[in-house]
């Protein structure tokens, strides 16, 4: 079945461009459009898309709040949010990730990257390169704990090895790099990451990285 996509952007011309790109793919179907966050909420309820391509800066309700209401705590709907931003380090991107977005993509990304990003997010993965995760969190380190605060009790549910994996995820390592660092297979790393997400109630490795920083497990800027 085709991946159902909702386009959310306050610029009609951009929505038209995205629609043309996506409708050229057999496995993607644009089921609707919205010009702001409030319209997006209505469309999500009515159309039940798999992926919402979400602009950040829009009138009436921005993409961060719309993302929070679509994918935030207590939401069990199928929609995943892929945030679109004009700037490489948009000041709202971290807030969108905290709100439940599965990743972000630059608006000027090549068409093939846009298509692949939607497929990745629809499959339940995070569309955010490990290096970008690190840059984002380090750039906004002033908004995160210093690392001196006590770590939350939820970390007690993790094994020592799972804590190790979580720290490496937060520091921007890919599964292959984590496997090499810990001298285990990539399959083992994927299993550990899956356990971490399940135990901490997180959607993907992006939120796991944010959690590690916010909990104080990893200090911003630490190597």
Give a quick summary of the entry.
With 223 residues, the chain is an alpha/beta fold. Helix content is 47%, strand content 12%.
Can you give a write-up of this model?
InterPro entries: CheY-like_superfamily, NreC/VraR/RcsB-like_REC, Sig_transdc_resp-reg_C-effctor, Sig_transdc_resp-reg_receiver, Tscrpt_reg_LuxR_C, WalR-like. Residues 4-122 form the Response regulatory domain. Residues 151-216 form the HTH luxR-type domain. This protein has helices spanning 12-22, 37-47, 63-71, 93-99, 111-122, 130-139, 160-170, 175-182, 186-200, 205-214; strands at residues 3-8, 28-34, 51-55, 80-85, 104-106. It has 223 residues and is α/β, with parallel strands linked by helices. It folds into 2 domains: 3-138, Response regulator (Rossmann fold); 155-215, Orthogonal Bundle (Arc Repressor Mutant, subunit A). It has a 5-stranded parallel sheet with strand order 2-1-3-4-5, sandwiched between helices. Helix 1 (12-22) links the parallel strand 1 (3-8) and strand 2. Helix 2 (37-47) runs parallel beside helix 3 (63-71), helix 6 runs parallel beside helix 10 and helix 8 (175-182) crosses helix 9. The longest helix has 15 residues, at 186-200. The radius of gyration is 17 Å and the shape is globular. The termini are far apart. The model has no long low-confidence stretch (mean pLDDT 82).
């Amino acid at each position: 079945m085709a991946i159902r996509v909702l386009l959310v952007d306050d610029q009609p011309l951009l929505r038209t461009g995205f629609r043309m790109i996506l409708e050229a793919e057999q496995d993607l179907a644009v089921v609707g459009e919205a010009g702001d966050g409030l319209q997006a909420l209505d469309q999500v309820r009515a159309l039940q898309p798999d992926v919402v391509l979400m602009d950040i800066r829009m009138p009436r309700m921005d993409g961060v709040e719309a993302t929070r209401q679509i994918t935030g705590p207590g939401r069990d709907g199928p929609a995943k949010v892929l945030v679109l931003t004009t700037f490489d380090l948009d000041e709202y991107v971290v807030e969108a990730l905290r709100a439940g977005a599965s990743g972000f993509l630059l608006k000027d990304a090549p068409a093939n990257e846009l298509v692949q990003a939607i497929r990745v997010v629809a499959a339940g993965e995070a569309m955010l390169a490990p290096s970008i995760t690190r840059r984002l969190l380090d750039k906004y380190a002033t908004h995160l704990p210093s690392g001196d605060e006590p770590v939350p009790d939820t970390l007690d549910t993790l094994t020592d090895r799972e804590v190790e994996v979580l720290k490496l995820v937060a520091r921007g390592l890919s599964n292959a790099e984590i496997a090499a660092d810990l001298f285990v297979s990539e399959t083992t790393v994927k299993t550990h990451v899956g356990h971490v997400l399940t135990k901490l109630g997180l959607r993907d490795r992006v939120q796991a990285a944010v959690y590690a920083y916010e909990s104080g497990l990893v200090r911003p800027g630490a190597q």
